[in-house]
Amino acid sequence: MVVRAAYTFALVLAVACGAPVHAAGTLNIYNWGNYTPPALIQKFEEQTGIRVTITEYDSNDTALARVRRGGHGFDIVVPSNSYLHFWIDQDLLMPLDRAVVRGLDNIDPRWRDVDFDPGRRYSVPWLWGTTGVIVDTSVWDGDIDTADIFLDPPEPLRGRINVIPQMSDVMHLAVRAAGGEPCTDDREVLQAVRAQLDRARHHWIAIDYGTIDGFVAGDIAAGVYWNGAALRVRLARDDFRFGYPQTGFPIWMDNAAVLADARNPEAAMKFIDFILEPEHAAMISNFARYANGIAGSERYLDEVMRDAPEIRVPDELADAGRFSVACPREVHALYMRIWTEVLR
Amino acid sequence: MADTGRSAVTRIPGFTAAALLTFVLLYVPIATLVVYSFNAAPSMSRWDGFSLQWYEAALQNRQVREVALRSLWLALAAGTMATLVATLAALATVRGGRFRGRTMIHALINQPLMVPEIVTGVALMVVFSVVRVRTGYDGMAYLVLAHTAFCIPFAYLPVRARLETLDPTLAHAAADLYASRVRAFLHVTLPLLWPGVLAGFMLAFVISLDAVVITEFVKSAGQDTLPTWMLGQLRRVVTPEMNAVATLLLGVSMLAVTAFFLLSRRRG
Amino acid sequence: MTAAQRRWLLLAPAVAILACVAAGPLLVMLVYSFLEPGEFGGVRPAFSLDAWFSVLFARDMFDPEIVEPNIAHLAILWRSVSLALQTTLVCIVLGFPTAWFIATRPRGTRELWLFLVTIPFWTNLLVRTFAIQEVIRNRGLVNTLLMQAGVIDEPIQMLYTDFAVLVGMAYVFLPLMVLPLYAAMERVDRRLLEAARDLYASRWRMFREVVLPLSRPGLVAGSVLVFIPAIGAWVTPRLLGGGRNLMLGNLIELQFGQGRNWPLGAALSMTLLALVLVALLVYLRAVDPDTRRRDHG
What we know:
The structure holds three protein chains of three kinds. By secondary structure, chain A is of the alpha/beta class. Chain A is 39% helix and 18% strand.
């Protein structure tokens, strides 16, 4: 019996430690939650024979900290524009291999030579979008293009507001509503923001991602949300509309890049090229409901996405959109302090 | 207290009602979860009849299968290792009376029970990342090791309890008979100890299957287990598919616990 | 090989694993709490007391010379302690009658009742929290039943409140209260109760004068066993607290993620550990005379 137990033990141990997840032919993707379409992965696996795993993160900081610690095992990461230069400056990314990544010309000219990655040396567009507000118009049919939806909510929305757990997005909206510039360290502005948020937080029911079910059932009637997520909600229930706060809202782009210490750079480069195909970029958009940056993908897009007001920023509000920025350490610490007070 | 009479001295007004209510409260949430996993409707707000579609959906979901398998063998590996190590430790602490450092050893063994999981989790995350960079190895061994340490106190308890009931003179007699200590252990002590060892394994297995916090912080690329996968999903999508997955997990835990119960009841 | 050598050989694997994976990392955390935060997470190897300072204090936004209490951290600390105490209380209220009920069943059926308490305890924590979420949601069991019964017209918002976290923790940790209470009560001599019955006449007095004192070791053990995981809870507030109403565990996670302040996370971890140690000391003080008597008796 002991011999058998020992044998089993040895076997289990062998399986435990011997079976590497990173055998040749495995690609480990590190991406935002609920952002990678299974159909796309399946197609890539079938075409290339490479096995794909997906691990999810919930903030740029989490992803950056984890990869910087090392020993992460990921091949591909999808940082936002505001953080990309940190990744590049700290040599965490591998320059794209032009021999494999041939579809760079597919990138929409608007997104081709961007200042966060000049000449697209390291990254390609995954999806881009805006952060604004979502409102159930059957509950509130007033103006929705305002940050007041979550900062000074009209009576019917109070107690039914969900705010996404993204400090940088929420602070961007709040600071600009108070008349400040993104990442400002102007204490007067910050003091106003702090007071405003402290009043507003009592009207929020949750600071979470918000489940579609929660919106549909009417538990959540408004909140801070991403445009694509808002589109998902509207498709589940037509009463929901996405608003772009006139005082200012962030625009962001998440970009797929290969990590400098990737275990399987060949597979990673193949994947990067794969998502540059308009058809595949459209698959990502159709899943997550955000716009991609690939020219020619429009004709593969679902009907509902083509002229969706969530995707197309109205001309009169376009100027209020500003690319999101990552704040310097001292400012970040200040913002974090205000944010922790909101969460308390 | 042997108490068989009905209106006995042990009756305290309201206690029986409160106790029965507690049992109802303990089981209603679990029962709700199970019942709704068989609901044909996609929402909890109504009941559309019996259906197995969510189980089908869950089992067809490749990710669910992958993370479930990973959870199972991780629990098997960590449970086995923890039981082995804990059995050896129990043999050392129970036999041979008191010794210097015994309190320290007990504190060390029980440490995972006292330190909040979140603290162990972030601490391991920090330490393992250094090891990962130094060694270049980033396989499952970290999770196995973390789970093992966490399971040791749970495996230790039943083994120790069993050992304490064993008559030490038996082993002494056996030692005289078989001459070799190892053979005496194998032929006398171990067969008697076996129910305790198995019970310890069952507990360790269940605890490893349950460990979500530590796993969440230690896992690296492609190492999601069923609980960490569920944790990620629960904040975004709540579908009856999750009820089905949860019910399956519930079933596995219950089987292991029942086995533990039967094993620890069997007297030597 | 001497007996002592053999003993340490048997202990070696357990000690090695626990020292490396359980005790060692805590020391690393202690060291980290005295360092400066790195630019994007991590630490810089420079001594600093800032992390410990900001556990309880903050500097005024306009004038860094002015030190003020860190209201966010204090609120979260207070919530953790208060919710853990409330959870313990709820568990006592529900657990005491339950343990007494089990302890007074006929011998043969006791184990079965005990088993019924144990099953939920050993089933997955995440699954049980999820189950509570399903019960107290706006469209969940409780609200649906209440609305159908005509008691309320609108669902009561329970999810994402401190109340939800309390319910979740009490549900999840209840067995930890019942088991030690039962163990203590099982040892109570029935003849004592009979004598008490003759002496006090009232059942309530009997309860107060005899049952309660005799159950005390179990009560203390159960309270500590519930308080410790409750104050360190992370999953329950995360799922039922709705991302705000943070507890200490969630605040620690935040510092290692979006907060980019590992030393602060480490210092908060050590604070949590200190709270647990206080609970343990209270426990040891309460049961120590008892154990000593038994050891020498």
